[in-house]
Write a structure and sequence with these properties.
The protein is an alpha/beta fold. The protein has a single domain (2-207), classed as 3-Layer(aba) Sandwich (Rossmann fold). Helix content is 37%, strand content 23%. The chain has 6 helices and 10 strands. The chain has an 8-stranded mixed sheet with strand order 3-2-1-4-5-6-10-8, sandwiched between helices. The protein has a two-stranded parallel ribbon with strand order 7-9. The protein is globular and about 40 Å long. Residues 116-122 have low confidence and may be disordered.
């Protein structure tokens, strides 16, 4: 499949690109800096652009079989990168007849009623406040996808680590007592969603 990876220069994005190439896909890495991948290997095309620029996104989306989004931000201030960026992505997909999109979001948007009280207090009083701007825009991004005419899947990731690929993780629309997840396993699951109709139009959580 000919894949477009948005946010390909990030730590998770690079793993998506690496695993997609290893699986035999042709990949276009959408990045802000043209030298992000040095000399690209075979089957990797580097497309320079800004996800907030509709024309850049439209040019990258055209002709692709699917889009994988690993959008991220470097600070915790107010942002529209996720929602505005995804708006540009789904608009371009509709224009060019591309159906499949899988996007990383955050498990912080899920409120598990079975979480122990101590963990719930930490989540509500500390984590949610620190990452409130990130969470708000990722929630808006999920709304953009849900309202779009695309075959979308949202993957809500827990706290990310650099643990090597294990292939052993839990996924579900809701997980009891979720733990951290390695970026390599997150990348592997995103790629597995491409051909899994059971994840279509769903918000999936991933955790060890």
């Amino acid at each position: 499949m000919d894949l477009l990876v948005i946010g390909a220069a990030g730590r998770t994005g690079r793993l998506i690109v690496e695993q997609a190439l290893a699986a035999g896909h042709a990949v276009t890495a959408f990045v802000r800096q043209p030298d992000a991948f040095g000399r690209p290997p075979d089957r990797l095309t580097v497309a320079q652009g800004d996800v907030l620029n509709p024309a850049d996104v439209a040019g990258a989306v055209k002709g692709k079989g699917a889009v994988l989004s690993a959008l991220g931000v470097k600070d915790r201030g107010p942002t529209t990168v996720f929602s505005a960026g995804m708006t540009n992505v789904v608009t371009a997909m509709t224009t060019h007849g591309v159906r499949r999109v899988v996007a990383i979001s955050t498990a912080g948007l899920d409120r598990d009623p079975d979480v122990p009280l101590a963990m719930k207090l930490i989540s509500n009083l500390i984590v949610a406040r620190v990452f409130r701007n990130l969470y708000r825009d990722q929630a808006r991004m999920e709304e953009v996808l849900a309202a779009s005419d695309t075959d979308w899947t949202v993957v809500r990731a827990t706290m990310l680590t650099d643990k090597p690929l294990t292939g052993r993780y839990r996924v579900g629309e809701r997980l009891h007592r979720p733990e951290r997840i390695g970026r390599a396993d997150l990348a592997a699951y995103l790629l597995s969603c491409l051909d899994d109709p059971q994840t279509s139009h769903k918000k999936m959580m991933i955790s060890y």
